[in-house]
Amino acid sequence: MNELKKLLIANRGEIACRIAQTARRLGIETVAVYSEADAQAKHVACCDSSYLIGPADARQSYLNIDRLMEVVRESGADAVHPGYGFLSENVALARACEVDGIMFVGPGPHAIEAMADKARAKAQAHQAGMPLIPGYYGDEQDDAFLKEQALAAGFPLMIKARMGGGGRGMRVVRSMDEFDAALASCRREALAGFGDDTVMLERYIERPRHVEVQVFGDAHGNVVHLFERDCSVQRRHQKVIEEAPAPGLSDSQRDAMGQAAADLARSVGYVGAGTVECIVDPDGNFYFLEMNTRLQVEHGVTELVTGLDLVEWQLRVARGERLPLAQDDLQLNGHCFEVRICAERPNKGFLPSVGQIQTWSLPEHIEFAQGDVRVDAGVRAQDSISPYYDSMVAKILVRADNRDQAIARMLDTLHATEISGIQTNLGFIKAIFSHPEFVAQSVHTGFIETHLKQLLNMNLDRSPA
To answer: Which residues form a coiled coil (predicted)?
Structure first.
């Protein structure tokens, strides 16, 4: 077993605080990194030591691999945890750690590479037995050829950046008349965002659900799935609400998805935490979407319905330990929701809100751990929200015996939460939880878009710009 005494957390905000809490419980010393904009941030205070890595611009700080590796050497860290976002799925960081003999708390470079290329990931998933949406996932990128493939796949169609992620580089095309402009637009966004303008095509499924499976593997060949999460309530392909278990899935569907996801992870020798994302059509058929080779923002949902600490599992696996539990030992318990509280203005097109937090008042809760009401936050009262980073300021999670009770508990928690000094989507989320179709489990990835006007009118926390 490898020794892990000091952990550098290559991230910021709530995920850095979350990782630090588990590391502290396990007796592991923690190292924070911060930009000039984050000198007084909560995650800096949560760690045992901290290092400035650059200016506010993430490209010169949190995305600067050379500087991060300098700090690894200066601090004497044994391992690097990338969190999520930033460099969490960057094969160059994983390789840099490998070259320097530093533990990377995540999968190896080969697995990251295999899943980063969406077309290659689709081929791997198909080989492992996962169903794919009909479409084209090959290397030929000539415009005329792609138009032929689009006709063969049929409309409506989705054009996707092959190296894309985070909802970027995606265009829905409903007829051939729209194809050329959508292809050009998708390629421009893909090249700007990912440095690669290759695309793939797949049939667009109307009113799908987005269901993902949490998987875990170790270096001894063991792989398990920790059930699924429903992430269908999204805005512009960005998740807003997650829940587990996914409503409306039968036991046989749940087992089939879980086993298929575990088989895919096993096929690439996967080590660590990963998520296999799927699209579920209105008839209940599931199709592979992509695999994220990192801990997800919504990992706490799985923690609350399984009673486990996934960051602890990550650290133990990184040290070379076997998975703590086998598949037959894993059980679901109750129902959990997570909401993402963001500094934004729903009544102004969800534009970001910046400024100093004056009031930060939440009901009784547990931070970053097991509890019926849990809050994972990277900010405190008097902290300033800057324009440089993601707008999410906290995640609120609740657990109850069933879905209806969990909805009631979430509404009670949201009504008892007060945040001032910045504007947030708090009222908008209350409106979603109060919407009759959400309560009735009638959710799909277009839920917010379909009901946007009604939800904005229901928003009880509207405030001027």
So the answer is: none
CATH of the domain at 39: 3.40.50.20
Please write down the HEC assignment for all residues of 257-318: HHHHHHHHHHHCCCCEEEEEEEEECCCCCEEEEEEECCCCCCHHHHHHHHCCCHHHHHHHHH
| pTM of this structure | 0.92
Clarify whether residues 171 and 311 are in a common domain. Answer: no
CA 361, 363, 366 angle in degrees (round to 5)? Answer: 105
User: Can you tell me the distance from the alpha carbon of 393 to that of 388, in angstroms, rounded to the nearest whole number?
Assistant: 13
Amino acid identity of residue 137, one-letter, is Y
pLDDT digits (tens, 9 = 90+) for 401-442: 999 999 999 999 999 999 999 999 999 999 999 999 999 999
Closest CA to 105 of 322, 320, 314: 314
The backbone torsions φ and ψ at residue 240, rounded to the nearest 5 degrees and listed phi first, read -115, -40
Select which of 171, 187, 229, 294 is catalytic.
Answer: 294
What average pLDDT does this structure show over 331-351? 96
Question: Domain for residue 429, yes or no?
Answer: yes
Q: How far apart are alpha carbons 136 and 335 in whole angstroms?
A: 37
Q: How many CB atoms lie within 10 A of CB 132?
A: 14
The residue count for the chain = 465
Average pLDDT over residues 272-291: 95
DSSP class per residue in 416-458: T-EEESS--SHHHHHHHHH-HHHHTT---TTHHHHHHHHHHHH
- Number of folded domains in the chain? 3
Task: Indicate if 268 and 381 belong to the same structural domain.
Answer: yes
* Terminal CA-CA length for the chain: 55
pLDDT at 440: 97
User: Under 8 Å CB-to-CB from 70, ≥6 apart: which residues?
Assistant: none
Category of 278 on φ-ψ map: left (φ > 0), alpha (ψ -120 to 50) or beta: beta
Query: What residues make up the domain containing 48?
Result: 6-105
CA–CA dist 44, 32 (Å, integer): 6
Residues 362 and 218 in one domain: yes
Same domain, 214 and 171: no
Rounded CA separation 449/237 (Å): 11
91 and 139 co-located in one domain: no
Looking at residue 324, what is its pLDDT? 97
Cα(20)–Cα(18) distance, integer angstroms: 5
> Do 100 and 141 fall into the same domain?
no
| Whether residue 348 sits in one domain with residue 295 | yes
In a domain, 121, yes or no: no
* Contact status, residue 7 vs residue 81, Cβ threshold 8 Å: yes
187 carries an active-site annotation? no
Residues 150 and 58 in one domain: no
